[in-house]
Design brief:
alpha+beta, 7 helices, about 160 residues, globular, four-stranded antiparallel sheet, Nuclear Transport Factor 2, Chain: A, about 45% helix
Length: about 160
Amino acid sequence: MKKLLSYVSMIVAAAVIMTGCSKNSPKSVASTFLNSYYHLDYEGAKKVSTEETKNTLNMMQQLSATFFPDSMKKAAKDIKVTIKDVKEEGDKATVIYNTSTVPTDQTLHMVKEKGKWLVQWTKQDQMNGADTTGAEPEPEMADSTATPEEQAAVPDSSTPK
């Protein structure tokens, strides 16, 4: 009976250790963050975030409470996140993902702090994010004060080469 109890406790301990490790992988943490973030569950996203990321999420949480209608909040629950690749380099990781609303590849940066993987999402990352509107980039405006000769001398960057 003691041997059986000993084997059972070892199996349970091994299962707990294996489960605990997998929850602290970059992929698992990124999945938790991204699903929480896109479903507007900022509290869930903060649980796996650095302090700087938590500050950014606090601002976004306040804005969404004020400006997002209930219909938008409900629609957010249907967004699907797909993690395509994870590159781990020491205490840093990069996660490539896309969503059902933005099918282009996007990047999420992660860091390991005190042995725990956390999302490091800065204001700069937010500004460099993908265009979620799906709109084409607007063509550059011509300088209306330039002479026709000056305008002809400047290459048009809006046309493909």
